[in-house]
Write a structure and sequence with these properties.
Layout: E1 8-13, H1 17-32, E2 36-37, E3 46-51, H2 56-74, E4 80-84, H3 85-98, E5 104-106, H4 114-122, E6 127-129, E7 153-157, E8 159-160, H5 171-175, E9 179-180, H6 183-195, E10 200-204, H7 221-229, E11 236-240, H8 249-257, E12 264-266, H9 274-279, H10 286-299, E13 304-311, H11 318-331, E14 335-340, H12 358-381, E15 387-395, E16 402-406, E17 412-416, E18 425-433, E19 438-442
Parallel strand pairs: 1-2, 1-3, 3-4, 4-5, 5-6, 7-10, 10-11, 12-13, 13-14, 17-19
Antiparallel strand pairs: 8-9, 15-16, 15-18, 16-17, 18-19
Bound molecules: iron/sulfur cluster.
Iron/sulfur cluster binds at residues 162, 164, 166, 169, 171-172, 206-207, 243.
């Protein structure tokens, strides 16, 4: 099917912030050619699924969403269908063969060229592009996501790909080797976002702490943080994802120096057992992780830490799992993304000789998550009665006349307030803590007097 004029494009995003960011760039680039972004899939002339392969569930979901669009197409709907992202990278050729009604398949490195790819598809061709681009000249997209710039916070990518080889992870295979984006380009994007009203910048990459290390003369990650903090109007800086192995003293010191750096850090630990960490090829120990936490807390006593954990990794014994449980308490994580090990095609962990037991992993996951919930609740409740400063991000998803703001430590507070508070810093008293959020009331009069 050919599409003579650009129409409406709908991009469905699965997975992580990197994918959400890529989606924004796709919308921005296609917008240059006149493609109008829509949130309504029924209106779209071009549907792109930006996919995630990190977990089986996400892959299954994408096949079912794709199946729905393919059915509509078979029934006569005029629509171009594309699959982008990590599943496209992994299954490129196979997807094209399996789904003859899919017009376009491209991996994460196809994003900078999406205009050309869509042009070819609109001309009536089927297109597959899973080539990795040259790292030295990687064309980071500088166009702003039209939707990102209308919010109070925005993501800014600082690198692509990953040079680590964590044995459970598919990212190095789908997103390729690491390339650091030139810092001047990053700072320019931050300035443009601030000019659009953005106050909170989240720097994103697969392993932000290794930013710039392989590029002679480039800023380090710590130096980048200082440079972003120097931009007038940047009120808050967050970043993700951090790898403990590359967390340097200079980044820890930034928590002492930079008030813009928020008091929340997501620092994935994955396991509390050194033996498991070794099999995961994480290249740090539990002791090193705890030393980093001590250093961070010395620099920023109110720092709230969240983490990623995989339970039931191949060969994980009861004792090794208990070490993860004791680490959870020792650090006092306020939140975790926790999963049971899932054998993903293409990951090195499939070659480990140690086995795993899905049922045992399931039981361990329940125990971990139960304890995490208790800790999360204790943390939110510890704020009850306190006055905290939040940046108001939007309307509450559940209650009318209620807005939601976030503290620097990432506590979500819902409180009665009008929509004109969005984008403002407001003092609220926390009245009730729940597991993932809290309720509060504003303590300054609406006039600001
Ligand atoms: S650091 Fe490890 S877990 Fe993170 S993207 Fe790279 S390989 Fe995957």
């Amino acid at each position: 099917m050919a599409q003579s004029e650009p129409g409406k494009v709908y991009v469905h995003t699965f997975g992580c912030q990197m994918n959400a960011y890529d989606t924004g760039k796709i919308r921005a680039l296609l917008g240059r050619d006149g493609w109008e972004s829509t949130q309504d899939p029924d209106q779209a002339d071009l549907v792109l699924l930006n996919t995630c392969s990190i977990r089986e569930k996400a892959v299954d979901k994408m096949h079912s969403v794709l199946g729905e669009f393919r059915r509509e197409k078979r029934e006569g709907r005029q629509v171009l269908l594309g699959v982008a992202g990590c599943v496209a990278q992994m299954e490129g050729e196979a997807l094209m063969k399996r789904y003859p009604d899919v017009d376009l398949v491209f991996g994460p490195d196809g994003v900078p060229h999406v205009r050309k790819l869509v042009d070819e598809v609109a001309a009536g061709n089927r297109v597959l592009d899973t080539t990795f681009l040259d790292l030295e000249t990687y064309p980071f997209v500088t166009d702003l996501d039209p939707d990102a710039s209308s919010g109070v916070g925005a993501f800014v990518t600082i690198q692509k790909g990953c040079d680590n080889k964590c044995t459970y992870c598919i990212v190095p295979a789908t997103r390729g080797a690491e390339a650091s984006r030139p810092s001047e380009q990053i700072l320019d994007e931050c300035r443009r976002l601030v000019a659009e009203g953005v106050q909170e910048i989240t720097l994103i990459g697969q392993n932000v702490n290794s930013y710039g290390l392989k590029v002679p003369g480039e800023r380090t990650f710590a130096q980048l943080l200082y440079a972003v903090a120097d931009i007038p109007g940047v009120e808050r800086i967050r970043y993700t994802t951090s790898h403990p192995r590359d967390m340097g003293d200079d980044v820890i010191a930034a928590y002492r120096d930079l008030p813009q750096l928020t008091s929340h850090l997501h620092l994935p630990v994955q396991s509390g057992s050194n033996k498991v960490l070794r099999r995961m090829k994480r290249f740090y120990t539990r002791e090193r992780y705890l030393r980093i936490v001590d250093g961070l807390r010395e620099a920023r006593p109110d720092l709230a830490l969240t983490t990623d954990v995989i339970v039931g990794f191949p060969g994980e014994t009861d004792e090794q799992f208990e070490e993860t449980m004791t680490l959870l308490d020792e650090v006092g994580f306020v939140g975790s993304f926790s999963f049971k090990y899932s054998p993903r095609p293409g990951t090195p962990s499939l070659r480990l000789k140690e086995g795993y037991d899905d049922a045992v992993s399931g039981e361990r996951l329940i125990r971990y998550q139960d304890r995490q919930r208790e800790l999360s609740l204790a943390w939110t409740r510890s704020h009850e009665g306190q006055v905290v400063r939040v940046l108001v991000e939007g309307e509450s998803r559940h209650d009318e006349g209620v807005v939601a703001g976030r503290t620097g430590s990432n506590l979500m507070v819902n409180f009665p307030g009008s929509l004109d508070l969005i984008g403002q810093f407001v003092d609220v008293r926390v009245t009730r803590g729940f597991t993932h959020s809290s309720r509060g009331e504003r303590v300054t009069p609406p006039t600001g007097g």
